[in-house]
Amino acid sequence: MTESKRKKQIQLSHGGGGKEMNKLIKELFFKAFDNPILTNEEDAARLVLKGPTAFTTDSFTVAPLFFAGGDIGKLAIAGTVNDLAMMAARPEYLSCSFIIEEGFELDKLKTIVNSMASEMKKSGAKIVCGDTKVVPKGCADGIFINTSGIGEILQDGISIKNIQAGDAIIVSRDIGRHGAAILMAREGLTLESDLTSDCATLWPIVDALISAQIPLHAMRDATRGGISAVLNEWAVGSNVEISINEVDLPVADEVKGLCELYGFEPLDLANEGTFVIALPQEYANKAVEIIKLHQGAHSGSESADSGFIGEQAAIIGTVGTERAGKVILKTPWGSSRYLDLPQGELLPRIC
Predict the structure, then answer these.
(1) Angle between helix 203-211 and helix 72-85 axes, rounded to 10 deg
(2) What sequence ranges are listed for the domain PurM-like N-terminal (predicted)?
(3) Residues near 121 by Cβ (< 8 Å), separated by ≥ 6?
């Protein structure tokens, strides 16, 4: 019998509600996500909420499931926590549902679950309810994960509709890493590169900005569609012109190289640990300093596995009113052009 056949696999019975499912839930999920609310084993979690609350949900279907800098489990937790953080909401409670294909290796599932547990520690969030479904072989691509999150909003007024003329636009780090890392993994590229996804939990940085009383007008993590999508949504949502200086955009050499090879734009590539901020110009330098200090303080810790480059937070543009609803990209050669929303499927299945 070959090694692959000896490995334990998920069976349909693991989703059937009987002994096998009970064992999987208690010995894997409860052990990794242990907290009193979850282990009460009720049909619904009993929560105590106060004040304005943010609520979000997302589904994750990334291919490949494991990539440089993360995996689908880390991505699921970071992605949902980051959606809360972008509303200045402290992540508190998460739900988690797994759709697992029959035959999926149990060891891979354990790796994914442990990755999720590790990522939750960075924000203090807890998984308090969940669900497990097993579908017949061929009905899913290994594993799909859905997570929802609830958090207490700590600063009001952050909105796509609150961007104002005179605001500065900041990007928290170099752009396009996740899309480029997924492309390398999917295409089996063996370039001489240490490129990793930027997949990371952003709440600690946002918490530091809130604690410093930075008046944040808008925040958005630049996932599918990248920086281009965020800026265009903002320009339309607040009916303003956003002007970006191409020379100020932080882009890793490896990402530039892949874009040249495949004809992509770094601005269009997905990110999973990079966010954009709009805030009053007079607070921009202080915000950049806080981001750099926070990232620098973690450069030798777990954050390093996501390729954090603390020196690359940057002010990349300003907000005006002349061409409302448009994003203007100023080139290094003195010309300018409209930066449009990305079109077509550049990199399917990036999250």
Answers:
(1) 20
(2) 42-153
(3) none
Helices and strands (DSSP H and E) totals, the chain: 11, 13
Q: Exposed (0-12), middle (13-18) or buried (19+): which is 148, by Cβ within 10 Å?
A: middle
What would the two tokens of residue 187 be?
A: 């295409």
Distances 323 to 228, 234, 315, 319, 349 between C-alpha atoms, Å:
17, 13, 21, 10, 34
pLDDT tens track for 24-38: 999 999 999 999 999
End-to-end CA distance of the chain: 36
Average pLDDT on 192-213 reads 92
Element (DSSP H or E) covering residue 243: strand 241-245
Structure tokens at 120: 């939750």
Domain ranges of the chain: 3-153, 167-338
Q: Is 231 exposed, middle or buried (0-12, 13-18, 19+ CB in 10 A)?
A: buried
CATH superfamily of 3-153: PurM-like, N-terminal domain (3.30.1330.10)
Question: Quick one: tokens of 225?
Answer: 């569609």
Cβ proximity of 94 and 84 under 8 Å? no
Report the distance separating Cα 324 and Cα 235, nearest Å. Answer: 7
The C-alpha R_g of the chain, in whole angstroms, comes to: 21
- How many residues would you count in the chain? 351
Residue 152, strand partner residues: 53, 90
> DSSP class of residue 13?
G
CATH of domain 167-338: 3.90.650.10
Angle at 213 between CA 208 and CA 214, to 5 degrees: 85
Average pLDDT over residues 168-197: 86
Query: Whole-angstrom Cα distance, residue 33 to residue 259?
Result: 39
CA distance 222 to 239: 20
Global pTM?
A: 0.93
